[in-house]
Write a structure and sequence with these properties.
Layout (H helix, E strand, L loop, with lengths): L8 H4 L21 H10 L7 E5 L3 H4 L8 H4 L9 E4 L1 H7 L7 E5 L1 E2 L11 E2 L3 H6 L4 E6 L6 H18 L3 E5 L9 H13 L4 E4 L6 H6 L5 E4 L6 H13 L4 E4 L1 H4 L4 H14 L3 H22 L1
Parallel strand pairs: 1-2, 1-10, 2-3, 3-6, 6-7, 7-8, 8-9, 9-10
Antiparallel strand pairs: 4-5
This protein binds ribose-5-phosphate.
């Protein structure tokens, strides 16, 4: 009964304590709606403000890539060490345990294979299915300077409109054609265009000269793409430099799952991204963890 509560009233309403207005930790994301921010906070660790995304979506245009022939065997063991998993709905439904509760970034564009013009993509996922899969974001490829540049931009803007409607953030993945210069001028253009046209975060390759100008001129978070397999120390150095120059984390595939010791590598990448561990120290950690990982594998044989 309301009357019975009377004596407690003055105390429990804390009338002298103003309610806190919480800001949101992520660059350019302060005015997004609650659901959108909540999904982004599942991808980006609110403590470090950064993410380690594990990209395993390569099969959507190139089939069973080296290291991804059996995702159940090679990738599932890595899941506890990633903040987010980027993949297609086919692999999500068939291979990833539904008890996996971290963020899913769903590949939402596709069409051409490596045998055709890659920029000729279309949207490849319906929003209803994305919500059914409880994803934290949708990823779409954008081919600035590519043959189907406008079409790929339209894929992105349509997805952003749908994402805004459903509260699901969109990751624009900048795809660079083989004959294009991978330089700061290109990535400033591509990343800024994606952000201006509504992408909530952007994936860009790292470049040694001027990467900080790419991150600083992009008003939303940038995650660094991994690219082709490098020696582990080089990959850790690239991740460190990217984060040091303003990236909000990494979205790496082959440099993790094609490593001799993928669990050791993803743990070392995590230290670099979240704790800004120096590359040499992270490489020592990798080597140490690698011994243990390979030792365990031997023991199982
Ligand atoms: C990039 O265009 C696609 O999303 C890839 O399938 C994937 O994300 C690439 O990852 P990585 O280059 O690190 O292997």
């Amino acid at each position: 009964m309301p009357e019975a509560d009377k004596g407690k009233e003055a105390k429990d309403f804390f009338t002298e304590v103003p309610q806190k207005t919480n800001g949101f930790f992520l660059k350019g994301s302060g005015s997004l709606d609650w659901g959108m921010q909540n999904r982004l906070a599942r991808i980006f660790n609110p403590k470090s403000g950064r993410t380690v995304m594990l990209a395993v979506d390569h099969g959507y245009f190139q089939g069973p890539t080296t290291g991804l022939e059996r995702i159940d065997l090679s990738i599932v063991p890595l899941l506890p060490h990633a903040d987010a998993l980027m993949l297609t709905r086919g692999i999500l439904r068939t291979v990833i345990p539904s008890s996996f509760t971290k963020a899913i970034v769903l590949r939402a564009s596709g069409g051409p294979s490596i045998l055709k013009e890659l920029s000729n993509e279309r949207l490849a996922v319906d929003m209803e299915d994305a919500t059914r899969l409880n994803v934290s974001a949708l990823a779409v490829q954008v081919f600035i300077g590519g043959e189907y540049e406008t079409q790929s931009i339209e894929n992105m803007t349509q997805l952003v409109d749908l994402g805004n409607q459903y509260g699901i953030p969109v990751l624009a993945v900048t795809a660079v054609g083989k004959d294009m210069a991978r330089d700061a001028r290109y990535f400033r253009l591509a990343c800024r265009m994606c952000a201006e046209l509504g992408a909530h975060f952007v994936k860009s390759y790292y470049i040694p000269d001027g990467f900080d100008t790419v991150t600083s001129s992009c008003p939303v978070p940038i995650v660094m793409a991994g690219g082709k397999k490098l020696p582990e120390l080089d990959a850790l150095t690239m991740a460190y430099n990217a984060v040091d120059q303003g990236a909000s984390g990494v979205d790496m595939g082959r440099n993790i799952f094609q490593s001799d010791a993928p669990i050791a590598m993803i743990k070392a990448v995590g230290k670099v991204v979240h704790d800004k561990m120096k590359p040499k120290q992270a490489y020592e950690l990798y080597k140490d963890l690698k011994q243990k990982e390979l030792g365990k594998k031997k023991g199982k044989k």
